[in-house]
Design a protein that fits this description.
Strand content: 15-25%
Number of strands: 11
Number of domains: 2
CATH superfamily of the largest domain: inorganic pyrophosphatase (n-terminal core)
CATH architecture of the largest domain: Alpha-Beta Complex
Number of helices: 12
Strand order of the largest sheet: 6-7-8-9-11-10
Length: 342
């Protein structure tokens, strides 16, 4: 038999040890809450649901609840129809809480606020370098392109047979968090994992259609409004957009996952940093996202506001009005970029 030309999987000794520790913990306990950051994106929700399906295969009780539930963009994911959306959906006396793709306990928003942190075991699984290691068990490894890849390691280590539900959820995490395999976090491991997932029934075309070809006329009208409001610094190196509640009311739609909008700004020639400022439903809170070129650390921009993420993609919450956020955040970003050679 000819020797395989495919490179072997690489997993650090520390992550190998954590995979074993997490699986051992799961086998010894039951009745888990599975959650992730507020408005869970494709990676966060896909990771939660993939792990939920794994727990069910292991005969464990599992419930998925994340603040604001499954966003419309991701309701094609198997099990998303059962995802709880707020504290009212929480059960009592969980043996442990698993969090995915969340840099801090507070990022669970209303869910973490409603849970008794003392006496509750928290298992924190994440691939953000800025993670605060807030769990009782912390598996944080920034070498993974998506948190879902970490779940895939747990699935393989658990000794269960993966099915299409798990594979679809994990594949979605990879597609969304690598920008369809285009971001700098896309590695050999990313493609090896994607190839494995195809063997378990994943249909890339179906997932692509569900993610990117289900736009309504109202959503396209919203996108047109947003693109028409892009602003730039004098030198064109910083571009930004502002999404207000007024704009949502004007178009009669909500933006859903906002990554699409900031990616459009980042795609413009000459823009080294793209910024998105979105007014939230909670008065006085503005969601801020940054996308940066290599050599510009987005975590440094977000950390001032207790945010984090990845060097190329970061986020934080600004306390104040949308107008204040635009003035302060944009000015800070422009000054930050000026100090970094192109």
């Amino acid at each position: 038999m000819a020797k395989s030309l495919l490179p072997p999987h690489k997993l650090s000794p520390a992550s190998k040890a954590m995979v074993k520790k997490v699986i051992d913990f799961v086998r010894k306990n039951d009745n888990f809450l599975v959650s992730g950051h507020v408005r869970s994106d494709g990676d966060a929700l896909g990771s939660q649901l993939a792990f939920h399906h794994l727990l069910k295969k292991l005969g464990k009780k599992s419930q998925v609840v994340c603040d604001q539930g499954a966003l419309p963009d991701y309701r094609f994911l198997p099990g998303s129809d059962k995802v709880g959306a707020g504290p009212e959906d929480l059960a009592k006396k969980y043996s442990a809480v698993f969090t995915f793709d969340s840099g801090s306990w507070e990022r669970l928003e209303r869910i973490s606020a409603a849970l008794p942190r003392k006496g509750l075991t928290v298992v924190n699984v994440d691939h953000h370098a800025s993670n605060e290691r807030f769990g009782d068990l912390n598996w944080v490894d920034p070498s993974f392109s998506a948190c879902g890849e970490m779940v895939w390691e747990l699935v393989k280590a658990a000794g269960v047979k993966p099915d299409r539900n798990i594979a679809t959820c994990v594949y979605t995490t990879i597609v969304t968090d690598t920008g369809r395999f285009s971001f700098s976090n896309t590695t050999t491991e990313t493609h090896l994992n994607a190839a494995e997932l195809l063997a378990f029934g994943v249909k890339p075309g179906e997932i692509h259609n569900a993610l990117y070809r289900q736009r309504t006329k109202e959503q396209l009208a919203f996108l047109a409004e947003v693109l028409g409001r892009i602003k730039f610094s004098e030198d064109g190196q910083v571009g930004w957009i502002v999404i207000s509640k007024e704009l949502e009311q004007k178009t009669g739609t909500t933006p859903g996952d906002t990554q699409e909008y900031i990616d459009h700004v980042k795609s413009i020639k000459g823009v080294r940093v793209a910024v998105l400022l979105k007014e939230t439903d909670e008065p006085g809170k503005v969601k801020v996202s940054w996308r940066t070129n290599a050599g510009i650390d987005g975590i440094a921009l977000a950390s001032k506001y207790k945010g984090g993420g990845h060097p190329r993609a970061s986020g934080a919450t600004f306390r104040g009005t949308l107008e204040e956020a635009e003035r302060v955040i944009v000015d800070e970003t422009i000054q930050f970029v000026k100090g970094i050679p192109a």
